[in-house]
Amino acid sequence: MHLDTSKISSFFETEYPLNKHGLRELLDLFSIKKIKKNTQILTEHKEERQLRFLNNGVIREYYSSSNRETNINFYTKPQFITDLSSFIHDTKTKKNQETLTDIELLVIDKIPFRQLLQKYECGKSFIDLSFQKLLKQKELFEYNRITKSSEELYNELLIYKPNWLQTIPQYHIASYLNITPETLSRIRRRIS
């Protein structure tokens, strides 16, 4: 199976300018993985052992308690989907990820990735920048959840994440907004 690295190459060129030799070596370490819809790809209480890049498809990320699941993110475009905190610090994740469509991933195991980081200094900047971005996203997400109404949050999805509203089932969007599907229906009727 041919390994298409065009999306991940473009991602690195835009998001994280890396040493060209290091990038080529990194891309050569990835393998391709095709996964069917409704498959669990990350489970809480397990250690993240692979760096995963979403090439195609849709994934939901969520927390689970004894009586409910709460969506915290959706991945719909080419990007890394690894729980970096678990991956880098060798800790167990609190997150779950499930495929909402058939997906295609590029994956690299932790040990060869770490060996590459030691070889190229730019790898450290990739990790540092990734953590800074994650922290910024997390803070914004928490701030929005606390300070904005469900309707305001839905309006932001309309503006900033319209592809979510077109590709993700409404009951998952409702969970992300921390409301019932019925409340989401009422908000949608009011706005349209």
From TrEMBL:
Protein's name according to its UniProt entry: Crp/Fnr family transcriptional regulator
Alphabetized CDD domains for the sequence: CAP_ED
Matches recorded under PROSITE patterns: CNMP_BINDING_3 (PS50042)
Residues of the Cyclic nucleotide-binding domain: 18-117
SUPFAM superfamilies registered for this protein in UniProt: cAMP-binding domain-like
